[in-house]
Design a protein that fits this description.
With about 325 residues, the chain is of the alpha/beta class. The protein contains 15 helices and eight strands. It folds into two domains: about 160 residues, Nitrogenase molybdenum iron protein domain (Rossmann fold), CATH 3.40.50.1980; about 130 residues, Rossmann fold (3-Layer(aba) Sandwich). Strands 2-1-3-4 form a four-stranded parallel β-sheet, with helices on both faces. Strands 6-5-7-8 form a four-stranded parallel β-sheet, sandwiched between helices. Helix 4 packs across helix 10. The longest helix has 23 residues. The N and C termini lie far apart (about 55 Å). Bound molecules: iron/sulfur cluster.
């Protein structure tokens, strides 16, 4: 079984997905992926899903290894905004042709990575696999590893060729690339007890900027957004958050669940749309942060908890009085 087939099988049985868990054992074995009908407009391929999940990381170069149409189809389809760097909006592709199909595209990919690092020098290069190079056997993991060693820079393979499945599956495969190669690889300059991650928030047409002022007012710091208006360094440090909120209908549930498993970061699923959902989201964030404050066996635990609890309660009730009158 190839690494990709194994990964897809694992994602089809996501234990964090309530729908999946509600199925019978027999149904669960079939997985949750609905096979696409060739030619049907099924809302994008797996590559497209991985690209939309990761392209909002604004300061890295997103290099698509494949024929030019793959990049053309997926470029900026969500219209996500950046508060700074615009590297993510440049369409990088290896633009494979017939000769590459005959001789293989690995050398071409390596040269493309080198050219990007020499000319743009981003903090990282994300390399996306697509159908054609996957079918001719180009090993992007090996090329990325060689480039990482040669240039001393993170070069991240995103193994989600279009034929692997649906766009939703591609979202999750994109998340797997972050879990395997990015999250936990760097440390933040400082941390606070109120650091959170937003998982599945893409800052589509700047929506994140409507929410951030409310969190700022409550003293809650977004350590990393995965991946709207994100910087590479922030995502590399995301393992130091104290709690996480999962948005976008479980598109990155595998990231939320595995971060809880590996780093002990509790999460909940929520939405920022509408007064009731917004109010619930803020309460849930505050609840998780307060619950996580005590450390077992520590005599200072109750003190820490109540110290955190008081300002949160005051801030949230002040916020509700001002913005959400009953
Ligand atoms: S990855 Fe495959 S399915 Fe997706 S756009 Fe490229 S060729 Fe089409």
């Amino acid at each position: 079984m190839s690494a990709l087939t194994k990964k897809v099988a694992e994602l089809m049985h996501e234990p964090g997905c309530a729908k999946n868990q509600a199925k019978s054992e027999k149904e669960r074995k079939k997985g949750c992926g609905k096979q696409l009908t060739p030619g049907a407009a099924a809302g994008g391929c797996a590559f497209d899903g991985a690209k939309i999940a990761l392209q909002p990381i604004v300061d890295v170069a997103h290099l698509v290894h494949g024929p030019i149409a793959c990049e053309g189809n997926s470029w900026d389809s969500r219209h996500v905004f950046s508060s700074g760097p615009s590297t993510y909006r440049t369409g990088f592709t290896t633009d494979l042709g017939e000769l590459d199909v005959i001789y293989g595209g690995e050398k071409r990919l390596f040269r493309a990575i080198r050219e990007i690092i020499e000319k743009v020098d981003p903090p990282a290069v994300f390399v996306y696999q697509t159908c054609v190079p996957a079918m001719i056997g180009d090993d992007i993991d090996a090329v990325c590893k060689a480039a990482r060693e040669k240039f001393g820079k993170p070069v991240i393979p995103v193994n989600a060729p279009g034929f692997a499945g649906s766009k939703n599956l591609g979202n999750k495969l994109g998340g797997e690339a972050l879990l395997e190669h990015v999250i936990g690889t760097e440390e933040p300059e400082f941390t606070t007890p109120c650091d959170i991650n937003l998982i599945g928030e893409y800052n589509v047409v700047g929506e994140l900027w409507q929410v951030k002022p409310l969190l700022d007012e409550l003293g809650i710091r977004i350590l990393a957004t995965i991946s709207g208006d994100a910087r590479y360094h922030d995502i590399a440090c995301a393992h130091r958050a104290r709690a996480a909120m999962m948005l976008c209908s479980q598109a990155l549930i595998n990231v939320a669940r595995k971060m809880e498993e590996h780093y002990g970061i509790p999460y909940f699923e929520g939405s920022f749309y509408g007064i009731a959902d917004m109010s619930d989201a803020l309460r849930n964030i505050a609840r998780l942060l307060v619950e996580r404050a005590p450390m077992s066996g520590s005599s200072t635990a109750p003190k820490v908890s109540s110290a955190l609890d008081r300002p949160f309660r005051a801030a949230i009730s002040g916020f509700i009085d001002r913005f959400l009158p009953s």
